Amino acid sequence: MKKKILVVDDEKDILELLSYNLTKEGFEVITARNGIEALELAKKGPDLIILDIMMPEMNGIEVIRELAKDAKTASIPIILLTAKGSETDEIVGLEIGADDYIVKPVKIGKLIARVNACLRRKEIFEKSAIEKSNVLKYKELEVDVDSYVVKINDKRINLARKEFETLVYLMRNKGKVMSRNSILDTVWGENVHVVDRTVDVHIRKIREKLGKYADCIETVPGVGYRFTEPNE
Q1: Model-level pTM?
Q2: CATH number of 4-127
């Protein structure tokens, strides 16, 4: 079955260029011209979204935040495609939940390689979910790996995709100290340029959302993080 990719950009030429080349590579492509259209099409379950940041109606940053609120769309990998090129913009894009970040003008070969790499990482994560426990629990904290849902006392907590995968990685290695590099390589992949600060920001956001379970994620100075029982 063909992988379905949603391409979102307000520039018609970009949509046509990417659609042509992705279709040529064997993907099924659907397109949107703004963020609102993207949210509607995301409900159709694309395997990956290529998303521009600067768009009318709703920008790419807002789209990512909205996707994270819905269990049906929170697990969709996202590659940001934008004219912005500073390191700060890249960091912001990755910190809000994007899987990768490519600056326009982009070489098609490079984009295709990133798309395939992103899809492979998703397949590896899903395969791991099948082979291991699908539901991770600690007291009232429950993480359903299959549905990308986190609950505390049966109340859903909205985590961005990378926040979710980081939490899963730490919980599956409960009690072990996981280095920042280990988290980066496992959650983002070795070929994505991400700085250590990105991991720290994701950990901070996870803690904010976990409330009384925030202390379960312990900082090990100079090394990384581990999931543990407080005072364990």
Answers
A1: 0.73
A2: 3.40.50.2300
